[in-house]
Amino acid sequence: MTDRYLELANANLTKTILDGLGLPTPVRLKREDESNPHQLSGHVLLGSSEGASFTQAIYSILQATSVTMTEAGGDDSVSLVFDASGISSADQSSQLYEFFSQQLSSLARCGRVIVIGHRPEALADTAHATLQRGLVGFVKSVAKEIGRKGATANLLYVDKGGKTAIEAPLRFLLSAGSTFMNAQVLNAAKPVIKIKGDWTRPLTGKSIVVTGAARGIGLAISQVLARDGATVIGVDVPQAKADLNSAMASINGLSLPLDITSAGAAETLVRFCQDHSSELHSIIHNAGITRDKMLSRMTSVQWDLLMQVNLGAAQRINDAFLATELLDNGGKIIGVASISGIAGNVGQTNYGFSKSAVIGMVDSLAKPCAKRGITINAVAPGFIETQMTAAIPFATRQMGRRLSSLSQGGLPIDVAEVIGFFVSPQAAGINGNTVRVCGQSLLGA
Ligand code: NAD
Predict the structure, then answer these.
(1) Does the pLDDT at position 75 exceed 80?
(2) pLDDT-derived band of residue 76, with 50, 70 and 90 as boundaries?
(3) Helix (H/G/I), strand (E/B), else coil: 333
(4) pTM of the complete model
(5) How does pLDDT run across 22-74, given as a tens digit for each residue?
(6) CA 20 to 30 Å from 128, out of 50, 116, 212, 428?
(7) Domain locations in the chain as residue ranges
(8) From the CB of 254, is ligand 1 less than 6 Å away?
(9) What are φ and ψ of residue 205, in 5° steps?
(10) Spacing, Cα 364 to ligand 1 middle (Å)
């Protein structure tokens, strides 16, 4: 559905009027060039605290890309990357202040702020851990200051020994693909398996299951994964067979009409994958439904059906695949949660429970999966322009859009791009993360 307000805010005459009235004027966000995705461009200014651990590695990574490294930002021209991993005292925090207070005005429209630190829980030094935790509040506050420019700020925590894991998240955060991921913390750890892959078509030769692939976010995920080289095995309910078939035909994918809550569905899916490929690279648990009602009026059918689609089916599918070796040594599992599972929402006790449990699934499976060279991560979308959100009443829909620091809703492709990053072979050091794709929505922040 078109966001008319966004269009008005980007037309010369109406933008002036909205500015004059002090109303938000959201910037049209930059997204990947579909004919040439994953290309980095623009200027990057790299700063560093004293005693920082990763600056040399970051410099070498950036040098090998097509961004231009610069020593001083001009007007509105740069993205800012700062290695804050050395900050271990209140006095040293001024290094962060000095860099950003001088350089933030140079930030490009739709530019990026990326701060890199040590994961506090992994540090033995309590003062160092305390100061590194402070980076979260700093990044979230910067994101609120720069959102009106369509720019984002994110924090990358790197575990000790995780230097080799920095490249994939750094490239992704600088790319147009991360446009609606804002004010998030990503954890990168030493990868269990060797990182290899091509940055332009990272999923070449990989088979990936996407549930709920016939429309909406699932369709966008399928298209992005196919663009990146994957063969998508699209699953959706038999009633959506026609849409599913045409969606999969358009990306050379495979179509499996299947209700994931039906008896034996997980085993059917495993057999289908075994028949079509010797290994499976990823499973994206995207299929989901809402059955909104105030708790006192919610029927047990509304509770149970939703729980089976959003949670039970995903768990049975994981169990069935993890009972085989199909995902071992490089496989990825992705959950699709929601900010309703983080913030809660009126009339969504069932949905909120299921989506919070998806985050629980990531937290509890991350360690056992890592032992087998598998990663598991989740996205938690905020307001995304789909059929689901088009059905929301007008005033609530407008509010949902403007609640984010970017003053707009995201597009299905924005969620898909984050998933594309999670499943890329180069993201082998990214495990156990749930990332909100919400433009920094105020809900639950
Ligand atoms: P959608 O309703 O447009 O698409 C969901 C797809 O899942 C449909 O094609 C549907 O047929 C399929 N599906 C439902 N039950 C199924 C079953 N039993 N077996 C197989 N397939 C089944 O929804 P969407 O907006 O694209 O949402 C996709 C995911 O993102 C969901 O998990 C949803 O909860 C989550 N999400 C969406 C938003 C949003 O703003 N749209 C926000 C947060 C989270």
Answers:
(1) no
(2) low
(3) strand
(4) 0.96
(5) 787 889 999 999 889 999 989 999 999 999 999 999 999 999 999 999 987 66
(6) 428
(7) 1-30, 31-188, 207-437
(8) no
(9) 80, 5
(10) 23
